[in-house]
């Protein structure tokens, strides 16, 4: 399979997606959180692949999404501490 030129709207800019995953991850600990993230990432990778997104680009999108989620969680945590 060859790489395509299709690109998706950046996952890390989808606020509802980032917020939703962050909230779920915040409710989990340890292996439960890891398992949830791995399953979520795999589902997203499959969806992007089925949409024609090149594997390398799909992996970059999921990586950027994870960074956005972690940033979201850190910001929310800092806001809670500031109260």
UniProtKB/TrEMBL annotation:
Pfam family, one: DUF6074
Domain of life: Bacteria
Protein name per its UniProtKB record: TetR family transcriptional regulator
Native source species: Mesorhizobium neociceri
InterPro entries in the record: DUF6074 (IPR045720)
